[in-house]
Amino acid sequence: MSLMLALACVLTISFTSCSSDDDKDMTYPVINTTDVQASPTNGQTFKQGDVIHFTCLFTDDKELGSYNIEIHNNFDHHTHSTASGEEEGEDDDDHDHDHEHGHEAENAWVYNESYAIPAGTRSYTAQHDITIPTGIATGDYHFMLRLTDRAGWQQLHAVAIKITE
Q: Is residue 143's pLDDT more than 80?
């Protein structure tokens, strides 16, 4: 009888210690731009030398991992279609077409930084001050966020910004 009891205990322990599908992270993290005063906002204009005060709330049902901020030119007016209303109302005839000015396109600003989120975190408010260099090409840029949770799920968010002299 003790052998049967031992076998029953081993089986019970093995079934309860195995992770179930409920423990697997199967959802994307969330870039929340409504519960905090998120910045920058779509269509916002900055001058060379200005500081972009970046603020955004990130959440995940299990655990956040890291995020990346990328700023790149949008002189060709491409889209990323991640932000509600991104580039809404823009008309190609209204653009400065900075990409046609070779010397400006050569000085296009590129910013690309990654940041770790402390382990075990499910909600995180990210804040950074990013100084826009002087002497860069002016025109349309994209401010992109990539948020990744610990399981590897990734969420993207892009807004269109303009940089002037």
A: yes
Q: Say which CATH class 25-164 falls into.
A: mainly beta
Q: Which residues pair with 129 in a beta bridge?
A: 53
Between the CA of residue 50 and those of 46, 62, 151, 155, what are the distances in Å?
Answer: 6, 37, 36, 28
Give the DSSP H or E segment for 10: helix 2-17
Q: Are 154 and 28 in contact, with CB atoms under 8 Å apart? A: yes
Closest by CA position to 53, among listed 153, 130, 163: 130
Amino acid sitting at position 165: E
Written as six digits, the tokens of 54 are 């970046």
Query: Do the Cβ atoms of 154 and 146 come closer than 8 Å?
Result: yes
Q: How would you classify residue 135: left for phi > 0, otherwise alpha for psi between -120 and 50, otherwise beta?
A: left
pLDDT in tens, 105-131: 679 999 999 999 999 999 999 999 999
Closest CA to 59 of 129, 126, 116, 144: 126
pLDDT band at 10 (very low <50, low <70, confident <90, very high): very low
Q: Cα torsion at 27, 28, 32, 38 (round to 10°)?
A: 170
Q: How far is CA 24 from the centre of its chain?
A: 22
What residues does each domain of the chain span? Answer: 25-164
